[in-house]
Design goal:
The protein has 13 helices and no strands. By secondary structure, it is mostly helical. It is globular and about 55 Å long.
Length: about 400
């Protein structure tokens, strides 16, 4: 029986998920601003590691739990843990508690992300999975767009308490949404011998040639974009003489591009057989964007092409994730998505760690060009394999 897409539930869940992401972004903004003096530069780096490392270290087990237990059993308790962690940050406890609270919250969030990523495809027909992912990504991008401005207003006018309270409330709202909408992806009750293992997701990713190639391509792109994220401040302010306002606007315009791309993905029903071509073109376009930004002589060039890059990243995220979700067996879907998230996080951490050293050694423009060249080489190597292995995708 063909699955019917439950658009109303997907829309409401995406709104609640976007609100939760906005709350998390507010917490990141506020906790870094509040604790930077006490923690110092190394302490701020450790704060970010506390938020990033759990998705790498715990992803196999988080995915296993998300496959083993139903959405309604797993997500609400984990979301309540995250809510309590956010509320605790508003209590004014010593700065060392921030590291513990963020690590616990990020650990719970690893399971939440795996469960939510596996839930969305269960609410959509196969041809609508990318559109559902794009809708959710649109509200996530909106959170990225609104959080810095809202965080600045809240902190400057009311102090640091309200960002944490809003974050805690947002997790409660997402929990209530899951329960009231009566959405549920049941746990694995029947499975092949040995399939209910923590590392089954990793095995599936590397056994499927198409998924493996897409994951590697997206990871390389994330590394390239990570270099841009770190180096953009040096390019705009030091090289092009832009103000801090222009730097902030450049980030907002990139997020606006991501929103635009997400909206396009949601409202446009593209046949499955074209999704792989869109991914390939999106990656190629992003590499061109990086080269153009590296050669920019004025900040408006960075803004204009940054907007185009945001659109392409949204398309890549929606269609790439949709293909992975559709190709994955139901009983290991959460573990595969947790693995995918962990790989993306490793790419982000790697690029962030290396970018500063490389930029300082070779210069910001040269680093951008180098990142684009590496991305182009990987695309040239893996692009044909992706198209070949996926030639029957959408025609099954």
């Amino acid at each position: 029986m063909t699955q019917k897409t439950q658009w109303r539930k997907i829309q409401l869940l995406s709104v609640a998920s976007g609100a939760s992401f906005l709350g998390s972004a507010l917490t990141t903004f506020a906790v870094v601003l509040r604790d930077k003096d006490a923690a110092g530069a190394s302490g701020v780096s450790l704060l970010f590691l506390c938020m990033l490392l759990p998705s790498v270290l715990l992803s196999p087990w988080a995915g296993l739990l998300a496959d083993k237990y139903s959405t309604r059993k797993l997500m609400p308790p984990l979301l309540m843990v995250m809510s309590l962690c956010s509320f605790s940050l508003a209590m004014g406890w010593p700065s060392w508690w921030s590291f513990i609270a963020l690590f616990i919250s990020a650990s719970a969030n690893t399971g939440v992300n795996a469960a939510f990523s596996a839930l969305l495809p269960s609410l959509a027909a196969k041809e609508d999975v990318a559109r559902a992912t794009g809708l959710n990504a649109t509200f996530t991008a909106l959170g990225s767009l609104l959080a810095p401005a809202l965080g600045g207003v809240l902190v400057s006018s009311t102090g640091f308490v309200w960002p944490f309270l809003i974050d805690g409330i947002s997790f409660i709202v997402l929990t209530i949404s899951i329960l009231l909408l009566n959405v549920n992806r049941v746990g694995v009750s029947v499975h092949e011998e040995g399939s209910l293992k923590a590392l089954a997701g990793i095995q599936f990713v590397f056994q499927d040639k198409l998924i493996r190639s897409i994951v590697i391509l997206i990871t390389v792109l994330i590394v390239s974009l990570g270099v841009i994220q770190v180096g953009e401040v040096f390019l705009l302010i030091d090289e092009l003489g832009a103000s801090t306002l222009i730097y902030g606007l450049a980030g907002a315009i990139f997020a606006l591009g991501a929103v635009t791309g997400g909206i396009f993905t949601t409202v446009t029903k593209v046949p499955l057989r074209y999704h792989l071509r869109i991914i390939t073109v999106a990656i190629l376009t992003v590499l061109i964007v990086i080269v153009v930004i590296a050669s920019a002589q004025h900040w408006w060039v960075v803004m204009t092409f940054g907007y185009l890059g945001g659109i392409c990243v949204a398309l890549l995220n929606s269609y790439g994730t949709g293909i992975i979700q559709n190709r994955t067996k139901e009983e290991v879907r959460a573990r595969v998505m947790a693995t995918f998230g962990a790989v993306i996080t490793v790419g982000t951490v790697t690029s962030t760690a290396l970018a500063g050293i490389v930029i300082q050694t070779f210069g910001v423009r040269e680093t951008f060009i180098g990142a684009a060249v590496i991305g182009a080489v990987i695309l040239a190597v893996l692009g044909p394999a992706v198209l070949k292995n996926g030639k029957d995708y959408g025609r099954e």
